[in-house]
Design brief:
The chain contains 8 helices and 22 strands. By secondary structure, it is α/β, with parallel strands linked by helices.
Length: about 425
């Protein structure tokens, strides 16, 4: 058994960021990663995925991304390269291929025992830096689909060529679902899209990317206690694919996609959908209208100059009714596969690690797994009865630059509604 001060479980961006701060403070630690650095980026993202926010927003403590157009959007493999580069830069004490199976309190001691498939560890503190959303969430209706229909969660989707020939049903209209729809359309596939909750925002507004506005208006600095409704609010519907562009789901219908309401059931090869398509589209528009109003109010308070010619604020969307069939006969429609770009279910610290409950975060009243890595003075993800170590919190994998060190609510693709 190896004795060490701090064990970090997870070698993604959150674990690496914490390692940076611990090394700067001279604190002994080790990172245990069951796969490779950026494993989810490597093996659980589709080939054409691009980072949803501009290159200038990508930064980890002590290292910012430098490459290409700062206003451009970074492809998946470039994000992996950036994380590999960061690992080497900070000389992270990383041990890969180590799956943590359990974290238990040592009998008669405040220290913790970390069980893996190999070597065991004894630590004063353990940080779960895996992110809380680990297991793909699939609707119960999936079990009622015909057995010859291929079903793929978005974490297993790679590209159109990996699906059997035929039409594809995509269930979920969040950022992942929309990027996959565009990927399929680009390959000439016939696509059906079941539309759920979503929140539209402009890709650019007044000549600046939406991320700039979210950051400047303080949306990324809000805590859960300040916005208790945040977990129930859809993440912004944005994409970096194709250089980045606005998403209006109605445009997919003009491009040949058959739009459907929310999937509610299946029997005998037929899927049944709620008659709520127009309502879902209207609610999505409300997000765009609310964002533009908030941005204009912020611009007025800050005395920002009028937007340059050609970058005037977007006009409120015009409602366009889209026909939506209440049923879909999979065989008659030629649907051979279903992609589920749905949320991930919450786990305590990964699918196999069950650490002790972490203490409440100062100032928030509860430990929040979505609070972003910060430069605060307490390591609030630690599971220990001893005082927290002086290091950064690493409870959410985020590589977005932020000017504020506070814990934040951040749009997280892995926890979106699809």
């Amino acid at each position: 058994m190896e004795s060490i001060e701090t064990v970090i479980v997870g070698g993604g961006q959150a674990g690496l960021a914490l390692s940076y701060h611990l090394r700067a403070l001279g604190r002994q630690h080790v990172i245990l990663e069951r796969g490779r650095v950026a494993e989810r980026w490597r093996s659980e993202r589709w080939d054409s995925l691009t980072f949803q926010f501009p290159a200038w927003s990508i930064e980890l403590p002590g290292h910012a991304y430098r490459g290409g157009d700062p206003e451009g959007f970074v492809p998946r493999d470039e994000v992996i390269r950036f994380l590999d580069e960061y690992r080497d830069l900070i000389k992270a004490p990383l041990r890969t291929g180590v799956a943590v199976r359990a974290v238990r309190r040592k009998p008669g001691s405040p220290r913790l025992l970390v069980e893996t498939d190999g070597l065991a560890y004894e630590a004063a503190q353990v940080v779960a830096a895996t992110g809380p959303y680990q297991e793909p969430l699939r609707l119960a209706v999936a079990a009622a689909l015909p057995p010859d229909v291929v079903q793929v969660h978005s974490s297993r989707y790679r590209n159109p060529g990996t699906l059997p020939p035929g039409a594809v049903l995509v269930v979920g209209s969040g950022a992942s679902g929309c990027q996959i729809v565009e990927d399929l359309l680009g390959a000439g596939r016939t696509v059906y899209l079941s539309v759920g909750r979503h929140r539209r925002v402009p890709r650019r507004y007044r000549g600046r990317d939406v991320f700039w506005w979210l950051r400047e208006m303080g949306a990324l600095d809000q805590t859960i206690s300040e916005r208790p409704d945040a977990r129930q609010t859809p993440n912004p519907l944005v994409t970096g694919a194709g250089g980045g562009h606005d998403i209006d789901i109605r445009d997919y219908a003009a491009g040949g996609v058959v739009l459907l309401g929310r999937l509610r059931g299946a029997d005998d090869g037929r899927l049944h959908f709620d008659d709520d398509l127009d309502g879902q589209l209207t609610k999505g528009d409300e997000g765009l209208i609310a964002f533009c109003a908030s941005a204009e109010e912020y611009a007025r308070r800050q005395g920002l100059e009028p937007p340059p010619t050609g970058t005037e604020p977007a006009a409120p969307p015009r409602a366009r009714r889209v026909a939506s069939p209440p049923q879909l006969d999979l065989r008659a429609a030629g649907v051979t596969s279903v992609v589920w770009p749905r949320a991930f279910t919450r786990t305590s610290a990964g699918s196999s690690c069950r650490p002790s409950t972490p203490p409440a975060s100062p100032g928030t009243g509860a430990a929040c797994p979505r609070a972003r890595a910060s430069t605060s003075s307490a390591c609030r993800g630690c599971t220990s009865s001893s005082p927290p170590c002086s290091a950064a919190s690493a409870r959410t994998p985020s590589i977005w630059r932020s000017a504020s060190p506070r814990a934040r609510i951040a749009p997280c693709p892995s926890s979106s509604s699809g």
